[in-house]
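Need tokens for this chain, all 483 residues.
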Amino acid sequence: MERPIDDQLRALRAVHESLWDPAAELVRIAPGVNPGIDLSGWNLHAVRETALGAIVDLRHGEIARAAAGIRRVLANQYRAEGVPWSGTFKVCAEEDEPRNGHATEWLHYDPNWRQFLGCILAYTLERHEATLPRGLGVEMEAAIARCVRGEPHDRVAAWYTNPNLMHAWLESWVGVRQDDRRQVRAGEIRLERIMERCERLGDVDEYNSPTYDGIDLWAAALWASFPPTAGFAEAGGRLVARIGARLARLFHPGLAAICGPYCRAYGLSLDRYVSLAGQWLALAGADPTRVLPPTLDERTIHVHDLYFLEMFDDLGDVVVPHLRIEDVESPRRHEQRFGDVVAVSYLDAAWAVGAERGRIPKFATDQYVPFAAHDAHDGAVASVGVKLGESTSTIDASLHDERTATLLATGSADSVELLLAFSSAPAVQGRTVHLGDLTLECSATPSRVVTDPEAGVTHVRVRFDVPEVRMTARLAPGRPHRS
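Here are the structure tokens for all 483 residues:
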């Protein structure tokens, strides 16, 4: 029986066919990874997407091509021992090996590729080991073990949700495969710490992220679907239920948006770029053309994450029941506290706004969105997000009611910069910015305003020559409340 998501699965297979390089036996990096930058002349190849592409191939009978891709993935693992990058993988096959024992994390290597590639390869063995050529499964298991054993002790902080979830499963999974009880127990200990923290705080630390909620749901689905121990099955079910219920509550079908604030977000509008949470929502019954870009090809923004869709589809029975897609027919309010950090979200029939205060972001600050609003205006959705610009250390945002928020941005001794992300070009007039029914009014006149239209978003960088700036965000006065 045909499903709405089948169109997106066909689009993924078409993208895979377009990006597969038979000479290199790897997937080319898609133009949509860096929109506006032509990478075609570089002929770069993505290691993670090659591993995910093997799953696409295995599900559709392309065994030889899948095996060839997996072998190339394994050849791109760093095998040197005793160095911080031991066991991780190249992001692209063409990147240089670290030389003379020196490399900078995130610049010369991605440490989390241990967890991503390890889990992808382990899932592949769980589902498809019997169809792989003889001996390849043994090589894959050895590579996964290197992922686990190469991970530096305590590199992954307690608050760093997505690699923690993946690594806990990998530790115990390897322990079971290799009959190593101490390794099994290492994963169980990590699981226990994750669950204690989640229960104490009420949610995962990587709270409300259109990308990383998708990874967290995937990792929890691995716990529940292929549990190394009974504890993983039980905890995985609890995590999926908790994250899924919150995502469903904050998803606004009418606006095709997840209500903010966002701990980490690559974009504001689900139909402008490929997000992992958008894929789960589509599998749960949301209109796929509104929670994913309506056109999916190699130039779609963030299209590389679409490669997860085949695996998500396979694991959907674990996750989808917890993603109830319901119209916002009456107002919803959701509050989450992490100690002094308070995140509040409000949704009504045609409006979704979120604000967070109390956080001092230290990691992925370019993805932190402490204030976000989505509004139905003239038949379209207008969206805005306020982010930290250069020299700005904090933004404390609070909702006064469902239509009004205040923000206090603090910067260096002489300046504050805000990065405003809009779904379309706003009107900037002195201290005031307008988009649709939303008005942002600043306490100071900016000394510089730079507008930068990009694919799918308009960025406005606003600088103030003062150490702090207050901003009031208002829905147009006199607009009738709709519930």
